[in-house]
Predict the 3D structure of the following.
Amino acid sequence: MSSAPSGGPEPEAAAGADAVHAAPAAPLAVCLAGHVDHGKSSLLGRLLHELDLLPAGKVAALAAASDRRGVPLEWSFVLDALQLERDQAITLDTTRVRVRTPRRDLLVIDAPGHRELLRNLVTGAADTQSALLVVDAASGAQAQTRRHLALLRLLGVRDVVVAVNKMDLVDWREDRFRAVRDALADALARLGLAAHAIVPASARAGANLVRPPSEAPWWSGPTLVAALESLPERAAAGAALPLRVYVQDVYRIDGRRIVAGRLDSGTLAAGDRVLLLPGTREARVAALAGWPLAPQLAVAGDNAAIVFDEEIVVERGELACAPDDPPKLTPVFDADLFWLGHGALAPGRRLVLRIGTREVGAQLAAVHHVLDDASLERIDAPVVGEGGVARVTLRCDALLAVDDAARLPATGRFVLADDGAIVGGGVIDASGYPDQRRLRARPRADLTAVRHHVQPEERTARAGHAGAVVWLTGLSGAGKSTLAMALERRLFDLGWSVYTLDGDNVRGGLNADLGFSPEDRQENIRRVGEVAALFADAGVVCITAFISPYRDDRARARAAAGPRRFLEVHVDSDVATCEARDPKGLYRRARAGTLKGMTGVDSPYEPPEAADLTIDTRREDVAASVERLCAFVLAQCRG
Amino acid sequence: MSADPLDALEQHAIHVLREAYRRLQPLAMLWSLGKDSNTLVWLARKAFVGRVPFPVILLDTGNEFPEVYAFRDRYVREWGLDYVDAPCPPVEETDASLPPAARAAARKTLGLKRLIAQRRYAGVILGIRRDEQPVRGKERAMSPRDAEGRWHVRAQPTELWGHYEAAPPPGGHVRVHPLLAWTELDVWRYIKREGIPFCELYLARDGKRFRSLGERDITAPVPSGADSIDAIIAELASTRTEERAGRAMDHEREDAFERLRSAGYM
């Protein structure tokens, strides 16, 4: 940088036809990560020097910049260009460097290690599948390094090369290297990361970067460069996956309405039919527009310009997808999330959630566990701390089209924004929640309701009480059936018209065609809600005893009965207590792995936000619970 | 997508351009008439199906090379651009503590600030790249500037998975950088692949050529025999001279470029 304007050497002779005509392969992106002063930037700077990739005059400029600060030649200054970075000897922000080795073109992304700068690490690492982790041989992998690894895993990194750096400071002791290596291999395995290679190195001495270390005759493994060169290329399978295009914008050009959007997966061509979500419309692609030429086909990664064959109004945020393989529509899902915001993230917190171009208000419904930096164990915690990684449930203000990240990464991940700033993100696991698309089907328009000649008030007057739905919800084993049957007995003995719908009884007949997938459970509850509403119409107090784990299903049952005749009772207990009771042996089977989709074990339960009555069966015995429930129903339904 | 890495760079740039157009209005593009900003104009035509839907601006010091002005006059017409000439204030109005060439460059900063104040742009698209200069290496695809045009390098937004913070701070604007991930070699390969016109000053004459086009007073040609686009690509595949070696303002002091950029330079 201090070289004079014309101080560079003569350009070398042309490299020949290869450089001109052969399209080079895309460089492999590698994120550089590690603890704040374990020597990431120095290692990269020295690596560039060893590979003879620094521009002419660079070493002299570095020496001068180092001299001015009274420090020995500082290789990190190659990357740490900002004055503050150099003065404080710390990387503040992410930067990218092409590293051309003899056999591979790499794009190394230098991201800061400091814990306050995680957002810069996230920015740097978000598009990479490989990471180079630098760990100090003397101190080994520390909590911060483990947190980085957890974050990288969430961002999509799969393969890791580790440089155990500063080996010169531990006299190249083999036992020290082995100890650090074994601890790292264990941490990587716990996180589901592949330890591609773990190699000893010294950035300051330039040892085992490009040349094998003469200091360590015991080392017979690869150099760092050789390890990086052999990283696997994990090709994106985007085009082979079902179509997903978020509408980015709509242009009107030369009288045509052109829908702009990038294909996150799949392919698109004229004649294709697409389903537009979260609505239920379908449309046909008339043509793809383009300049200078209109393409015949758009594939994953392409920014398409789509013309539909009729003038349908399409808006930013809608998702065009393959009609035969659409994403799930749900307002609620579980996610593995990272949190970069200030302060802890607590349940109830409202944020803006963005998937593709869709933007919707969302609330953190629950924190299931957080990842502990030190042990990498999942631990229970009420909130997600700054820089934390956690399993959570998010609930959005509207139906959202979501894919499971494991299958469709691009449409299975989201970011969270607060006041316009991105403060977190995550990958979606909606497998435990039902697709609500089927429920969006509207009743046929040609139906005409016939009026009864008997009025509800007449039924109430004759029975001495109003019809109602008493909806018990809670985990299996919480005590729903026990309470329901006891309440039924009590009300019947008082001369009331009362009937209980219970899970297994209904599944024997009305719902014999349904299984236990989220969609079938949703349909099970939908039918029970409709039947219970008819009972209430008939003047009967209908008690239902179903886990009914999904909040939306219960809201629909409430709507079917009419809000004033629907009493939601939360029969509250925790999984451990219910599991100890285990009246049907279901928990035992779920833990043994022979029963899938057990609520509270491997399937979610959403507790009511505002139940009409909550009965905590951990604290109250059966008699007292029945008493309270009965008094409540009598007060609500007495004629 | 095919194996050509230029496709991925092209598609990323188009995505950024479309996102900026949707979320930052009014929007404009700086057109310095160099290879990078010509590539930007080309990408904008691709993004918006042939027509650039926002003004393109030359921060005009009056000191561009005549060949550059001739290039402008021709392609404003041929490309049907909404061209805006933004005159830059004289050097006397720049920060006197900067070294001389940096002061000359700072005229553009002032010209840009005036234009943004006048037209209240929410977004300005620029053709800078990470590999040009290490300080630019720290940039974001969408980078906020405060009401004084300053870059707060310590508080840059998070960008991931195609999500950007496209929201100008109060009174400020957002710099949009679609070419950030491109290298000089990528740009020339793309120019060749697409047949994008470029100013002839990039080609060697009498053993010298311009690798980077700035003002006449602060830009020098570098030694080169590359007299065709293929020769340029071959030269770049092997050279060890920095691209901006011919830009005097980069080399006066270690911190000169960072100071320029923090104050609002491109």
Q: What stands out?
A: Residues 5-182+252-262 of chain B form a domain with the Rossmann fold fold (CATH 3.40.50.620). The two ends of chain B are 32 Å apart (CA to CA). The helical segments of chain B are 5-23, 35-47, 66-78, 100-119, 184-194, 229-238, 256-262.
